[in-house]
């Protein structure tokens, strides 16, 4: 995975009912799900057309007792998992699962930034296949961090992944929304979380062709809307939702 350092390359849903979740996301996003065939573990692969985009698995035993809800996890490619995890820890982050190997797939670590937002580091054992266009249907078009503190969060990620500042939008009382870029391409935004949000988190926006139809599919499948549809700069439309098992996700589309 040369030349990928700092790029989001995989997304994983850990949930309580994988069969129900598979049915839900196949309907809402348009993915197709298939068993990964990994020995000793049930792992579902979500694909958009012929490109694998995300994975699905049952939450680890004891997670709910620890008040850890179902959630999406983003994997960021790095040149060296061990070295990046060490740098992250030295810069104030925490390594929650030490670097480990997935046989035949790659090496990973589960980490948090200094304020507690969870993500993963990853380096594959082979070159990654050609990626989908960023806004292709079924891909993840945007990555958003509700940060503990934007002023310190951005330098942390910039140092770790080489992300650069793009546009900054004044959100009034909500503060600044800082768009960030990877290799010159805007891939997400971050802002200081509202006080009523209990902890920082990453949110992932799945591309759909039309927002209203996807919202209806989400509602029909038992999902809930937590932030009503809104138009964002550039003419796209977004909505934030919770799936039937309680995981937060978002949708983005070029039209209603």
UniProtKB/TrEMBL annotation:
Annotated coiled-coil segments of the chain: none
Top-level taxon in the UniProt lineage: Bacteria
One Pfam short name: Glyoxalase
InterPro entries assigned: Anthracycline_SecMetBiosynth, Glyas_Bleomycin-R_OHBP_Dase, Glyas_Fos-R_dOase_dom, VOC_core
Name of the protein in its database record: VOC family protein
